Amino acid sequence: MISGNVWGGTGSSLPTPVPLSRGLRLHLLLLAVLLSLLAFIYWWYPSDAAAETDAAPAAVAAMVAAASGVFVAETRRKPKPVWRNYTVAKGDTLSGLFQRQGFGGSTLQQVIAAGQAAVPLANLRPGGELRFRVDEKGQLLAVSHAPGDLDTLMMESGSDGWQAGVRHLKPTPHTVVKNGSVDGALSPSLRAAGITSGMAAAFVKIFHWKVNFRRDMRPGATFAVIYQQLMQNGKEVGQGPIEAAELTNAGKVLRVYRYENGKGGYGYYTAEGYSLEPSILRTPLRYTRVSSTFSRHRWHPILHIWRPHYGVDLAAPAGTPIKAAANGVVKYIGRASGYGRLIELENMGAYSTRYGHMSRFAKGLKKGDPVRQGEVIGYVGQSGEATGPHLHFEIRIHGKPYPPLKVKLPDSASLPKKLMSNFQQTIQPLLAVLTDPDSDSSRQRLAALDEQPLSTARVDQGNNKRDL
Fold first, then answer.
1. What three-state secondary structure class fits 461?
2. What is the pLDDT of residues 311-368, one digit of tens each?
3. pLDDT tens profile 399-421
4. Long-range contacts of range 30-37, CB-CB < 8 Å, 24 or more positions apart?
5. Residue 80: is it exposed, middle or buried by C-beta count within 10 angstroms (0-12/13-18/19+)?
6. 186 in Cβ contact with 160 (< 8 Å)
7. Of the candidates 13, 150, 152, which has an alpha carbon nearest to the alpha carbon of residue 83?
8. How far is the CA of 24 from the CAs of 20, 65, 74, 76, in angstroms?
9. CA dist., res. 96 & res. 119, Å (int)
């Protein structure tokens, strides 16, 4: 553990008194005695005897001067260790910086050997701050490295070798609302409102289940986003997740709020507690085009006969991950004639889904395994009767196939009833801000939210942080 004094003593506005050594106290006492003796001599000796006594005061003066010299030498402070600051530039290496500061390779090896905490030194990034503390002889005493705005790696040389630790500063949350209208494309409009690209992607991900942003957006659409900025020394150093969001399009208002789902995770729910995410994904992969639709009577491209096509073919590059369309259990995994490599999942109630023509299955997946919606279960291929890489996807109800892109699906997951009371109470200030984001009352509500973290606002600075 590194003691606090390695940080340079900036905790007080008054200088700390320097403790007097035993030798210095003795010298001060001697000086006081000699000064008293000199005063005594000048006071008691008569003027006519001054010539005879010149030697005595002179001797005393010499002794005083000698004692004063000792006092000055004793009180002269030793040179303090100093910090050398350096901002990491592009192309800098740790060995090069050590060599430039006059430290040998053995010193660098000792620093690196301090343990896991020293690893960030090996990954210097341009703009980071690196500081060296040296004594009057130029010997390295400590190294400080700030890779970001919140973390500082501090390493100090001691009797037991080099010790390392990380000082982590906790940022201050500042709840904000960003709102605006869509002028042309959505992404530029979000950026114009001060929303970062990462936050814009999260916004699209929340609403894309209900809105096709390429096809459905109408002139005059508006949006609002509430989230927490993470501040340090007046600078934004990170962002929390979206806590509430609103999209008004073609007269329809969609509002969602982030809330713990009671299972250890978080989701976005309407004021009634419903999730926007569908219970079953209609297209469980990133595909390029629909190469064949559901049909009761289709000409087979390989067999050259008319036969039913009980699913939808989604063309995608070979190796594209295929995800479970819904929570379920693996009912079948293996080869199945024209399907090639096939997985069938038993989902909620009477629903089941099939995934055909895979190139391979997810590693370790077997019959009877539970899977969660969005979990990768295999990869696109063209095994079985296929003319190119694609996913053949089916949705069945009581074993009967239905068109995946058109079939009515069960309602999405909702919050448990036992959570609804607290959920309704939690979202009230967020709802008020979304309703009138520019009002004074909304600004007051946002300021009140700063007093408490909304959910999991954080900055990703790595793991295993500890305070010095």
1. coil
2. 999 999 999 999 999 999 999 999 998 899 999 999 988 999 999 999 999 999 999 9
3. 999 999 989 888 777 888 999 99
4. 30/67, 31/64, 31/67, 31/68, 31/71, 34/60, 34/63, 34/64, 34/67, 35/64
5. exposed
6. no
7. 152
8. 6, 16, 6, 11
9. 17
